[in-house]
Design a protein that fits this description.
The protein is mainly beta and 198 residues long. It has no helices and 19 strands. The radius of gyration is 27 Å and the shape is elongated.
Amino acid sequence: MSADLTVRLDTVQLKSDDRTLVVQQSGQDVRIAGVSGPAGPTWAGKFGGFFHSSDQTLAAANTPQLMQLESSYGASGVELSNSQIVFPTPGTYVLTFVAQLSNLANQVEDAVFWLRLNGSDYANSATRCTCVARKSAGSASSQLVTITFVGTATAPNDAVAIWWLGTSTDVSLQSDPVSTSPAHPAVPSVIVSVSQVA
């Protein structure tokens, strides 16, 4: 034997000290009224996508060099200026870059990548990559370098730049033109994306 029990509550009132939450049903509508909490963080979806469409070579071995960025896929609230990414609005951002690392030397070489914030090295941001020797004379080995950072811009117009060095001038960042056979878009030497997360 089974039975159905139906209970209808038109109004439920919850109280705790000086706060009251009222849940009311009127027909099919449910209304909730009460004291709201503090407003959470707000941002307007600030983002940027940037790239460099040609090769980047090193002027000298073991010498820091600015990674070049020249073009934008699109940006809102994040700017590109002299290969630096500028954050007009303080906040926490995630930055990811992908570089097409190449080694034409007939031996193993290293490359190091890191960030500079407002012209100063960003602590603990460096990554070392080991490049295998070339495939054959005139045919470089290549590999992707992908790095993600999360950091906070604390002042308007804080600027971040990516720097790098290599143990040989045979190490470079390579691009590829549009291909028709097989068909694929051009390959930039570096791609950077930035998004605000808080």
